[in-house]
Design a protein that fits this description.
The complex is a heterodimer of chains A (about 400) and B (about 260).
Chain A lengths: L1 H9 L43 E13 L2 E13 L4 H4 L1 E7 L8 E6 L18 E5 L2 H17 L14 H7 L3 H50 L6 H14 L15 H13 L1 H6 L3 E3 H12 L6 H8 L9 E5 L5 E5 L4 H15 L2 E2 H8 L3 H13 L3 E5 L4 E5 L3
Antiparallel strand pairs in A: 1-2, 1-5, 3-4, 4-5, 6-8, 7-8, 9-11, 10-11
Chain B lengths: L6 H18 L4 H32 L1 H14 L10 H6 L1 H23 L2 E3 H12 L8 H11 L7 E5 L2 E5 L7 H10 L4 E2 L1 H8 L3 H13 L4 E3 L7 E3 L4 H8 L2 H7 L2
Antiparallel strand pairs in B: 1-3, 2-3, 4-6, 5-6
Helix pairs in contact in B: 2-3, 5-6, 5-7, 9-10
The chains are: A alpha+beta (about 400), B mainly alpha (about 260).
Chain lengths: ~400, ~260
């Protein structure tokens, strides 16, 4: 109890004791509802039964939710059925809510507005007009049953002090006016949304089952291809690859998601060959692949390329005899470059520029040529690798000089 | 390509092979491919049905997206592998993430000169949302993480470093090993770190600490404040905005200006 008290105290809730009878071994099942009404309508009691109260059932480990905000009391939920006004009379309507993914099953209890003169309770004010109770599975069934029983019996009305109050499931739906009505509508909408989501999840699961079958089949096929069981034509191999592509299944043999060589990538490569000529010329014959990705997808607007699509298409440049090449630098940076801008040319131009200025950093070189810093650096590194430049690596910068050795 | 499998002799041979395989109870690969073709058509229909009912969920509900992605991963399917895949074409998952990829690249590029190519996931999230405008779909950090994972296919640029409960997103191919990562994590609390702090918390020698910090400086990921009281401080611009937004509210800022 102590640690719970301090935990809640730190949240600004002044907790006295939420008492509960811990007699689970008792032969009589007690159903106590100490927490009257909503969180902001909850009032403290000292846990002792008042005169006309009987304990109906008690349960450990019940969570109480204020509206949809999660747990703040996770303790014994004790429900005292009071013959006086408070408790059950404040319940307009209650229902079960089935479990969803990541959510437990709950009982939702809708409540009246707080009474003006209510005594102090855990919260003074809350924006929701319903609470949710979350139990263990089988307990929920029991609780629901008892609650229904109590509500229908309306034992509290048998006392002389009771007022006629519309409660119970039957009265719920006819209360369509005022705040209650609005809340009802919100509740229905929420249920509708929830239903959609759970339906969506159900459908998703079924879909995934079928997808799984496809995956199994493709594995079997790939194994057979590997073991050469049967006569596979090249056409069939291409078809198979395109099936893998459609499903997003990794080729079990090569581990690529489809490898290059599908019709789609061939087409794509040709498109890129056309599309990238001008931009590459403008940028000194070289563009980082990420730049290309942005350029192409921005231009397309819809039916965008995945990063893998782009890479696989670019890999085909060579075999399709297109004037572009995909190139991977030592650092791992991938670029597309024009065939016409040969390596020697680039290195020679780098050397010229550096000699001209005496020395250059990547930033300076980038500015000079109108390149991105990344690519400028790669060129300088390349020239260095070929022995034409050497570096001066200091904390301030990496500077390149002509190699005079 | 020479023509295989033509002529009476070839047909007979094929029949023989088929019979032999059927005897042993195995199915030929080409039969299976034909089977797969049919199953694919059926699957496509199911997917279309699913899309017609739930396409909106994917777009609107980030929780649903997470669930969807996880299920795909479990069965060994990558819905984002290709824009030509069924998932992408019919559910529109592809476009969502690929476009996000573009936005991520652009944000990182725009800020690179300032933070050297390192940015917190929070700041990235914030800026991407801003860039998308009020009426665009919501994106969660999980969405960003998945998009970034896909971007990795395009070269060494992109990576994620776990720091202080979240991530730093790296968008340049700077080599960052364990030592660098640990120092970044140490710097996360205050936005800067000193050699002494490193020696105290990590128990490294001065040499090692200096080496790591120098590397960060060189890569443009850290800035040196040599005028700091005490000893020089190494600041990480990637962590700046976090701190600024956390510490100073607009009201306080107004109070502070003379």
């Amino acid at each position: 109890m102590e640690e719970s008290v301090s935990k809640y105290a730190s949240r600004g809730v002044d907790i006295k004791s939420l008492k509960a009878k811990v007699n689970s071994s008792s032969s009589v099942i007690y159903f106590c509802f100490i927490i009257l009404l909503k969180i902001d309508r909850f009032v403290w009691t000292n846990g002792l039964l008042e005169m006309n109260e009987t304990v109906v059932i008690q349960q450990r480990g019940v969570r109480v939710y204020d509206g949809e905000d999660s747990v703040f009391i996770r303790r014994y939920l004790v429900w005292i059925q009071q013959k006086f006004l408070k408790c059950l009379s404040q319940i307009i309507f209650f229902e079960e809510q089935t479990a969803g993914i990541g959510k437990s099953a709950k009982i939702v209890i809708h409540l009246h507005q707080a009474l003006e003169n209510k005594e102090p309770g855990p919260y003074q004010h809350s924006k929701y007009s319903y609470i949710e109770l979350s139990f263990n599975e089988h307990v929920q069934i029991e609780f629901y049953r008892r609650l229904t029983e109590e509500m229908t019996q309306k034992r509290w009305e048998n006392t002389p002090v009771s007022q006629p109050i519309p409660t119970g499931p039957k009265a719920g739906r006819t209360c369509a006016v005022g705040i209650v009505g609005i809340e009802r509508k919100l509740e229905e909408k929420r249920k509708e949304t929830d239903k959609n989501i759970s339906e969506a999840f159900e459908d998703l699961s079924k879909l995934m089952e079928k997808a799984k079958e496809m995956v199994e089949l493709s594995k079997s096929i790939a194994n057979k291809i590997k073991d050469k069981q049967g006569d596979i034509t090249e056409d069939e191999t291409i078809r198979f690859k395109s099936y893998l592509l459609s499903m997003g299944i990794a080729n079990p043999v090569t581990r690529e998601t489809h490898g290059s060589g599908t019709q789609y990538h061939i087409q794509l490569a040709k498109q890129l060959g056309d599309m990238l000529q001008a931009p590459l010329e403008e940028r000194g014959g070289m563009m980082a692949l990420t730049e290309v990705y942005c350029l192409v997808n921005r231009a397309r607007g819809m039916e965008l390329l995945s990063p893998e699509d782009l890479v696989n298409a670019c890999k085909m440049f060579g075999s399709l005899k297109l004037p572009l090449r995909l190139r991977v630098f030592d650092s791992g940076v991938m670029v597309v470059q024009l065939q016409s801008h040969s390596e020697e040319e680039m290195i020679a131009s780098a050397l010229d520029n550096v000699s001209d200025k005496g020395s250059l950093t990547a930033e300076e070189f980038a500015k000079l040529l109108g390149l991105s810093v990344l690519l400028a650096k790669e060129r300088l590194l390349l020239a260095e690798k070929m022995g034409h430049l050497c570096r001066d690596d200091s904390v301030e910068s990496l500077r390149f000089y002509p190699n005079l050795f | 390509m020479h023509r295989r499998g033509v002529g009476a002799g070839a047909i007979a041979k094929k029949k023989l092979a088929e019979a032999k395989y059927k005897e042993r109870g195995t199915v030929l690969a080409e039969d299976q491919i034909a089977q797969m073709s049919k199953q694919l058509e059926t699957f496509k229909t199911h997917l279309e049905e699913f899309a017609s009912k739930h396409k909106q969920e994917i777009r609107k509900n980030s929780q649903f997206r997470v669930q969807f992605q996880e299920m795909c991963a479990t069965i060994g399917v990558d819905p984002l592998a290709s824009g030509k895949g069924f998932w992408s074409e019919m559910l529109g998952v592809g476009d969502f993430y690929y476009e996000l990829g573009v936005q991520i690249i652009e944000v990182c590029l725009a800020l690179k000169h300032r933070n050297g190519g390192l940015i917190t996931l929070d700041e990235l999230h914030h800026r991407v949302l801003k860039g998308r405008g009020k009426f665009a779909q919501d994106v969660s950090q999980d969405d960003l993480v998945r998009a970034i994972k896909k971007l990795k296919a395009m070269g060494n640029g992109f990576g994620m470093i776990p720091v202080g409960g979240s991530y730093l997103v790296q968008s340049v191919p700077a080599e960052l090993n364990m030592d660098h990562t640990v120092v970044l994590q140490l710097a996360e609390k205050k936005g800067y770190v000193t050699v002494s702090e490193i020696r105290d918390s990590l128990k490294w020698e001065r040499e090692r600490a200096s080496h790591v910090l120098d590397h960060l400086l060189k890569e443009g990921l850290a800035w040196l404040d040599s005028q700091a009281v005490g000893e020089p401080q190494y600041w990480l611009p990637a962590l700046f905005s976090e701190l600024l937004s956390r510490d100073v509210t607009p009201e306080e800022a107004n109070q502070m200006t003379p």
